[in-house]
Design a protein that fits this description.
Blueprint (H helix, E strand, L loop, with lengths): L6 H19 L4 E6 L2 E3 L25 E9 L4 E7 L4 H15 L10 E5 L3 H4 L1 H9 L4 E5 L10 H13 L7 H20 L11
Helix pairs in contact: 2-4, 5-6
Length: 206
């Protein structure tokens, strides 16, 4: 994937993201990283082993169903906000924007911090409907577009890997509804882990 990157764009946006993180840490802005992977009802195999030459198979009933996870990572607050959907369309992403409105947008009687949303150039981000929805929020929301083929610049990617490898792996879900519930429980657990004080579980030696 690196061979397909524009090195100048990667350097420029990488520096821009570091500056935005400093602003978010100082409390001047809200910095959100957005992305929309999918989870499957059939097992996600994070770590498995088998004898060399063995045909490794995991029994799974029926055909795998997908659930889209549309989410943003609040970088400074260390909070993952996720909506789930059976589809991954512009309308689903706009529904996520409406949730962002509620948590971070402007209200008639309260001016909140400006929001910067980091996104890739995926089709549901660049569609006519999404562009119009983003333009409506221009007074308080700015989009920082990532260069193509640069998932390493999107901080939410690490959380998706954590969620799949440690919370959804090695399980077969009866259907999309069960998977949906598991995703939201995993998000709650991840947020609790990320908010926990680093010394909370350390014992003080006598």
């Amino acid at each position: 994937m690196k061979a397909r990157q524009d090195p100048d764009a990667v350097d420029r946006i990488g520096l821009r993201c570091r500056l935005l993180k400093a602003q978010a840490e100082a409390g001047d802005i809200v910095l959100l990283f957005g992305d929309e992977p999918e989870a499957l009802t059939h097992p996600y195999l994070a770590h498995v082993w088998a004898r060399r030459g063995a045909d490794l198979r995991i029994p799974a009933p029926g055909q795998a169903a997908k659930v889209a996870m549309l989410g943003v990572l609040d970088w400074a607050a260390r909070e993952l906000v996720v909506q789930t959907s059976r589809t991954k369309r512009s309308t689903d992403f706009i529904a996520l924007l409406e949730q962002i409105d509620t948590q971070y947008g402007l209200t008639p009687d309260q001016a909140k911090k400006p929001v910067v949303l980091v996104l890739d150039n995926g089709p549901i981000h660049t569609s006519k409907a999404t562009r119009a929805a983003l333009a409506e929020r221009a007074p308080w929301l700015t989009v920082e577009w990532l260069p193509k083929y640069t998932p390493e610049l999107n901080d939410i990617e690490e959380l998706w890997r954590d969620l799949k490898q440690h919370h959804l792996a090695h399980q077969t879900f009866a259907g999309p509804d069960d998977l949906d519930c598991a995703i939201h429980e995993a998000v709650r657990m991840l947020n609790r882990e990320r908010h926990r004080h680093p010394l909370a579980n350390h014992r003080i030696a006598a």
